[in-house]
Write a structure and sequence with these properties.
Blueprint: H1 2-6, E1 23-24, E2 26-27, H2 32-42, E3 54-55, H3 60-67, E4 71-72, H4 77-84, H5 101-105, H6 128-136, H7 139-147
Parallel strand pairs: 1-4, 2-3
Length: 154
């Protein structure tokens, strides 16, 4: 994936596909998806400069892929499986590991980002901040997180 988004790989035949150019769709600079792509996947390497391939919204990767069968894009697992959930959009393995609830939760799929909730240790236990913290770290919250399509951590 890194080689595609740096421009080192430009044709699907280079990765076992058809002899056709790859269309690497990207997100806009201030999006969370772009920030995660740059930190998790690119790891400091600059991405290819293709302004015409940059979409403006979180659903832009899907609109691009619905029109271009030779395109590739990145988006959070949640967006792909819960917000869009279209069988025409295929996710692919990274190093032989399919993205899925168990491979993400078990950290087998390598591109995972975590979201943390913290409060100060000296937070008043009767405050709303503490009550929210207690709830979101409870088993009930994990159940709601899972029902919402996200993957809870332990």
């Amino acid at each position: 994936m890194k080689d595609i988004y740096t421009g080192r790989i430009t044709n699907w035949k280079e990765v076992g596909g058809e002899d056709v150019a790859i269309s690497p769709y990207m997100r806009n600079r201030n999006s969370g998806s772009q920030e995660k792509m740059e930190t998790l996947v690119m790891n400091g390497e600059p991405m290819i400069d293709l302004p015409e391939m940059i979409g403006g919204g979180m659903t832009s990767p899907f609109y691009s892929l619905w029109e271009d069968k030779y395109g590739i894009a990145y988006t959070p697992y949640y967006y792909c499986t819960t917000m869009v959930d279209d069988p025409a959009i295929e996710m692919f393995s990274i190093d032989g590991v399919e993205p899925g609830r168990s491979t993400i939760a078990g950290r087998e799929y390598r591109y995972v980002s975590e979201i943390y909730a913290v409060v100060r240790a000296d937070t008043d236990k009767s405050s709303m901040a503490w009550k929210v913290f207690e709830f979101i770290t409870s088993a009930n919250a994990n159940k709601l997180i899972e029902e919402s399509g996200y993957i809870p951590c332990n």
